[in-house]
Amino acid sequence: MEKMCSVLGVSRSGYHKRCQEKANENTYQKRRKALLARITWFFHDAAKRYGSPKITKLLKKEGWTVSERLVGKLMRENNLRSCVSKKFRVQTTDSNHTNPIAPNVLNQQFTTTEPNKVWVTDITYVPCREGRLYLASVLDLYTRKIVGWKLGDQMTTDLILGALDKAYEAKKPAEGLLHHSDRGSQYTSEEYRKRLKKYKMKASMSRKGNCYDNACIESFHSVLKKEFIYCTRFRTKEQAQKEMFQYIEFFYNRKRIHGSLGYESPDRFEEMYYKNRNEIALKECPLS
């Protein structure tokens, strides 16, 4: 070692310093390569729907010490761009009717203490080359989970009844659930009001022209459009039905993380609630 340093005309300390720098450089490059591989996996696992903020959260859950800035930089360098869509809106609320209007009981109180206490619902437009489609969705305010939905080619009372029936069959909520919607003629129809009464649900409706009163379901439909609908070309209604099922049931409910849920998915957040509730019950009433 001394002879080699003498021949090369470098000091021993300089040689060891360079060796350490080389080792650090190799370690850095290996970490960078591993980090990019993980970013790429999360990006494609989410069907290219996640940007750097969500991917950074997922990396940190795995134990990575990484900044959103670095994740964004690596994504840009490797052309990993999340789906970006144009804004488009079709009016789906027909409030020009004389049907009875329920009071605004919810009154923008978007926090609740447990699942299946408050449901919010709405209709949105889905473009399809074979003909227009409409999606009726029912969202649980606690878990942000879509508990019922139906896709149809007409914006009728039957469409929203189908979504409500599916939600009720799936969750069997206790009496007194608060059901919030806009003032659309479908939600104020006699048939729909009878179904709410049958299920022992309490109706609440937004104020006229105030989209903020139903902000949570509006937010879901906005996400749905940006991440899915406007990034996909539906050629047939059958394709739209199949891919809508995949997005809502397998991606949105099971996998998509939400900032309001501590970056958990709706299904995982619901699972954690019932697990914690059962643990508390066991502590209060231990088995003999």
From TrEMBL:
A Gene Ontology biological process term: DNA integration
Residue span(s) of domain Integrase catalytic: 111-273
Molecular-function annotations in GO: nucleic acid binding
One Pfam family per UniProt: rve_2
Matches recorded under InterPro entries: HTH-like_dom (IPR025948), Integrase_cat-core (IPR001584), RNaseH-like_sf (IPR012337), RNaseH_sf (IPR036397), Transpos_IS3 (IPR048020), Transposase_IS3/IS150/IS904 (IPR050900)
Superkingdom field: Bacteria
Function: Involved in the transposition of the insertion sequence.
Protein name from the UniProt record: Transposase InsO family protein
